[in-house]
Amino acid sequence: MVPEPGALDGAATAQEAGERLSDPAVRAVLVCEDGRLTGVITRKTLVQKVVAPGRDPRTTPVREIAEPPLFTLDASMGLDEAFHALEEHDLERVPVVEDGKLVGILSRTVLQRRLAEDEPPPEPELFQQQV
What we know:
This protein is 30% helix and 23% strand. The chain is an alpha/beta fold. The longest helix is centred in the middle third of the chain and has 11 residues.
């Protein structure tokens, strides 16, 4: 899990969200109020809720345009259960919350690697010498 994912406060502007989303590695910006995850902003969100209606991104607070998160994982969830949830919903990255507060982001790729590390090595084949 990536702890402290750098969410924006609800009072931040759409301009700030756009600056973060200009990095090709960033697919979504999380929005929090008092540490609680309240929403998500994507490039699509910016186009639909700021650009298309002609709103000023420098004065539009992200709390007004953020969409509710589609899916979150609880911090107490086990690794296997979290992996199955990501697989079932075909998600790559998911916010992790504890009592509604954002504590990190979990990536399916990182989770796969971690689960592979936890697997015991395969049993060596036993070879018998012929006498």
